[in-house]
């Protein structure tokens, strides 16, 4: 047996993740087989199971990867939008990025739909909260420093706003009539600017 270098092993892992992400996005978790993933990745089942204990563990890694990519883009947009004249600009720039991601097939299927089914609602909420609520709380902390909200309301408001954003994402994924990323953003901006 040929011993693989750490770099080769990492490249194999990346190929498996990319193949799984593509198939989970286009076919869904349930209709994606391990055989299809390794075929698309150009590797073996043994290699897949070397890196991931099972299909659910692989899915969770893809789910987390997608969330972290969205999170990084959200943070970058917020940092770029900090304004001396509009204390809400950074928070809203991050929110617009979230709505952009929540409008994509990949995010809708992997994070919002299959994520809850595969991970279970309680685990999904825990992981989503761990990844997302800190960003919301940071935006609220900034608003509190500017005197727009009370420090005491940061935690409860972060819970409520994160769930409002998730609810909007679910609405986009269901393609609810009359709901668009743009009008959800406008409604969220009105809500955020109305906080006192």
TrEMBL record:
PROSITE patterns: HTH_TETR_2. It comes from the Bacteria. This is HTH tetR-type domain-containing protein. Residues 33-52 bind DNA. Residues 10-70 form the HTH tetR-type domain. GO terms for molecular function: DNA-binding transcription factor activity; transcription cis-regulatory region binding. InterPro entries: Homeodomain-like_sf, HTH-type_TetR-like_transc_reg, HTH_TetR, Rv0078-like_C. Pfam families: TetR_C_41, TetR_N. Keywords: DNA-binding, Transcription, Transcription regulation.
């Amino acid at each position: 047996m040929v011993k693989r270098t750490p770099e080769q092993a990492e490249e194999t892992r990346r190929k498996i993740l990319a193949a799984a992400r593509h198939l989970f996005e286009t076919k869904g978790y349930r209709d994606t087989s391990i055989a299809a993933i390794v075929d698309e990745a150009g590797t073996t089942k043994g290699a897949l199971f070397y890196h991931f204990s099972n299909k659910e563990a692989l899915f969770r890694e893809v789910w987390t990867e997608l969330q972290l990519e969205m999170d990084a883009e959200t943070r970058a947009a917020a940092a770029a939008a900090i304004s001396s004249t509009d204390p809400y600009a950074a928070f809203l720039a991050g929110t617009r990025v979230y709505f952009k991601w929540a409008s994509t097939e990949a995010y809708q299927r992997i994070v919002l739909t299959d994520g809850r089914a595969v991970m279970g609602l309680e685990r999904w909420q825990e992981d989503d909260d761990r990844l997302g609520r800190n960003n919301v709380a940071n935006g609220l902390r900034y608003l509190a420093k500017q005197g727009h909200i009370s420090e005491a309301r940061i935690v409860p408001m972060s819970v409520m706003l994160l769930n409002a954003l998730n609810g909007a994402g679910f609405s986009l994924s269901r393609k609810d009539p009359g709901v668009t990323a743009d009008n959800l953003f406008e409604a969220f901006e009105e809500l955020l600017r109305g906080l006192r």
